[in-house]
């Protein structure tokens, strides 16, 4: 548990307050209104998604490998009426049986996993054959000039963002990992630094 990890966790909600108020929370709410059944959320952080799960969700398991984040998440759950279980696990090594979940949720997390292909493969493994992956991720810009800036600033941003990669082509990675993307919208994360503004929001299903 690094010192910067503790600092980053302590300041994360304040850091994201601007983007959340500028439309990110609305995006979360719209996306998660489609969640149902047994839900697995990958890298839940401090629990920004929890208020937006609807009545169709039966139970939620949230994985979070960063101890400072997991502790803050658990603090938020003390007064929660929902059935939520926090599991300290990396997305690349999920401690669940095959086909355990109806829905998986990934919001602003595939930018930080060490091995996106392996993480997506694990998500696919633990989903039921008719399950869905709901995702909201900032991605590599389609605009070449902004993409070049993402590449230039990748190193310092990765340090500042505690492992966040601002230039990942995440939509392509989802498709290359055994998912069929059934729905995707391109947007931008307002009130965020330009290199992390390009946003994708959508749903994918495991290929049989």
Q: TL;DR?
A:
With 208 residues, this protein is α/β, with parallel strands linked by helices. The chain has six helices and seven strands; from the N terminus they run H-E-E-H-E-E-H-E-H-H-H-E-E.
Q: What integer value in Å does the Rg equal?
A: 16 Å
How many structural domains can be distinguished in the coordinates?
Answer: 1
**Low-confidence regions:** none
Largest sheet: 7 strands, mixed
SSE order, one letter for each helix or strand:
HEEHEEHEHHHEE
Report the portion of residues in β strands.
25-35%
Strand order of the largest sheet: 3-2-1-4-5-7-6
Report the average pLDDT across residues: 96
| CATH class placement | Alpha Beta
Would you mind describing this structure in some detail?
The protein is an alpha/beta fold and 208 residues long. It has a single domain (3-206), classed as Vaccinia Virus protein VP39 (Rossmann fold, 3-Layer(aba) Sandwich), CATH 3.40.50. The chain is 36% helix and 26% strand. Strands 3-2-1-4-5-7-6 form a 7-stranded mixed β-sheet. Helix 2 (67-76) links the parallel strand 2 and strand 3. The longest helix is centred in the N-terminal third of the chain and has 30 residues, at 3-32. The chain is globular. The mean pLDDT is 96.
Task: Note the main attributes of this structure.
single chain; 208 residues; alpha/beta; Rossmann fold; 7-stranded mixed β-sheet; 7 strands; 26% strand
Give the SSE map.
Elements: H1 3-32, E1 37-42, E2 57-63, H2 67-76, E3 84-87, E4 101-107, H3 116-126, E5 127-138, H4 144-152, H5 154-160, H6 170-176, E6 179-188, E7 198-206
Parallel strand pairs: 1-2, 1-4, 2-3, 4-5
Antiparallel strand pairs: 5-7, 6-7
Helix pairs in contact: 1-2
